[in-house]
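>> received
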Amino acid sequence: MSRGLFLTLEGLDGSGKTTQINRLAAWLKKRSHDIVVTRQPGGTATGERIRALVLDSRSTFLAPMAEMALMFADRAQAIAEVIEPALASGKIVLCDRFTDSTEAYQGGGRELGSEAVLELHRLVCGNLQPNLTLLLLPSFEASLARARRRNQRTADQHGQDEGRFEQEQDAFYRRVWQKYLEIAAREPERVVLIEGDLSIDEVHEQIVEAVAERLAGLAVGARG
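>> returned
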């Protein structure tokens, strides 16, 4: 059995990742692909507990290094419990965030630097790399405003507080934004950058085009 395909979606909160990962999952299922959808932090029982701690706005005194260590603890569990078994069985894994998020938010936003993030990824995650990363970067202002509205709505409706990062100042998010652009420039073969305030359908079309191309390459490799 050939190994599966590992796809990740990245971007600022409010960039439309959740909508697009759901649409991509539906597109793949319609074409009879066996898929697993997961998220980080979260996606496992342990990961959901870590998510609650890291994203809760009451976690006010969490040190940047502790925050990064928790992200990697979540990721190590997700790889062992969800991602690696699915890939080994030939499935397509769609993951909402992966190590690029840690490099952007902790490496860039918290100013811990890329080197520490990438070294931890090598040690903790066995340097597992996505086959394709779809990086959604609509306008900075629109993303941030949408994320803050969404988190307030979620808190009001469900009592879940996941607004810790949205309390950060715009300068923090500017650093996250810039780090994402650096990652895309550094790894153009893996990262497909989708920029601008496009419609949901326009973003989906670009995502489908990139995924179809990667799937075609996987099929050719399997035949070879």
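>> The CA atoms of residues 132 and 190 lie 5 Å apart.
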